[in-house]
């Protein structure tokens, strides 16, 4: 069976795996992500390639940013500020000695779910990844929608407050301005921020484990924060639905491991549709993603298998 070397390049770690064409994960590991310069990133990728020399025929890469998958160019690099209009496919290929396919991480997550996960049996759906921000990928007619500028699915930037947005360039971007975007609400970061505000404590240092420990202990502030989070997430899904009319939304990210997360989103979406009974678009299903930490690897592999589409 043909084997692939697959990378999931994140802001903290580069995860990698040797995978079969059927999606089987043969070997895996991770290494710290270099944030200083492109050469360091290329060196790290090449180092992984040496571990698997002679054992792979093609390479697939998931990474943040606005990625032109067909051309192998990262128009932007997300948290990798040194990536801009960079021919990453060509550069990785030179270091790894094999053809390389590169795609945006949110689109890779959606690709995995569309292949054999929570979206496998629908024609149109979306993945929403609740992390530091709000990642995502959209599936239309069983294909990942790239968008005219390779930016479809950048859900973090869905506005939640419209008034005054045209004047933001005059005021500068600060914390209060960022609260105008969905990522400040429909994310793990947003959930922790609301909890911290209700408790009157700093949000720095809080994580999902601490939050759900408080929730399980019956803290009313934790229950109220999860309720607020669910309402804002459901409201965003309603807004997206008014444009795309999808069948199903699959919720991912670390906090989605808790069933209460999808439960509260589903319940709040039910409330919205009950209150707006004249909505012309369908109420979609809300489910949890099937794949967790391996979703980006699996989705990147599928892009390679299908020639970047």
From TrEMBL:
Pfam families: ROK. Signal peptide: none annotated. InterPro entries: ATPase_NBD (IPR043129), ROK (IPR000600). It comes from the Bacteria. Belongs to the ROK (NagC/XylR) family. This is ROK family protein. It comes from Candidatus Faecalibacterium faecipullorum. The lineage of its organism: Bacteria, Bacillati, Bacillota, Clostridia, Eubacteriales.
């Amino acid at each position: 069976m043909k084997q692939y070397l697959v990378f999931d390049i994140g802001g903290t770690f580069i995860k990698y795996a040797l995978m079969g064409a059927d999606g089987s994960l043969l070997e895996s590991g991770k290494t710290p992500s270099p944030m200083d310069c492109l050469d360091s990133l290329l060196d790290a990728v090449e180092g992984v390639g040496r571990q698997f020399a002679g054992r792979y025929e093609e390479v697939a890469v998931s990474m943040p940013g606005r990625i032109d998958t067909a051309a192998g160019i990262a128009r932007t690099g997300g948290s990798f500020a040194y990536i801009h209009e960079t021919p990453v496919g060509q550069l990785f290929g030179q270091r790894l000695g094999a053809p390389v396919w590169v795609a945006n991480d949110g689109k890779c997550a959606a690709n995995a779910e569309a292949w054999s996960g929570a979206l496998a049996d629908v024609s149109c759906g979306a993945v929403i990844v609740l992390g530091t921000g709000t990642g995502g990928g959209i599936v239309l007619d069983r294909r990942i929608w790239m968008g005219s500028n390779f930016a479809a699915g950048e859900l973090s930037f869905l506005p939640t407050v419209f008034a005054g947005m045209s004047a933001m360039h005059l005021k500068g971007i600060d914390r209060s301005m960022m609260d105008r975007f969905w990522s400040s609400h429909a994310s793990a970061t947003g959930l922790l921020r609301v909890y911290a505000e209700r408790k009157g404590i700093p949000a720095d240092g809080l994580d999902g484990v601490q939050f759900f420990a408080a929730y399980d202990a019956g803290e009313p502030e934790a229950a109220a924060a999860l309720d607020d989070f669910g309402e804002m997430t459901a409201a965003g899904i309603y807004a997206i639905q008014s444009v795309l009319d999808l069948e199903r939304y699959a919720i991912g990210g670390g906090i989605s491991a808790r069933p209460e997360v999808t439960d509260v989103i589903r319940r709040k979406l039910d409330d919205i549709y009950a209150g707006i009974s004249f909505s012309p678009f369908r109420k979609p299903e809300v489910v949890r993603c099937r794949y967790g930490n391996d979703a980006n690897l699996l989705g990147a592999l599928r892009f390679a298998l299908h020639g970047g589409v």
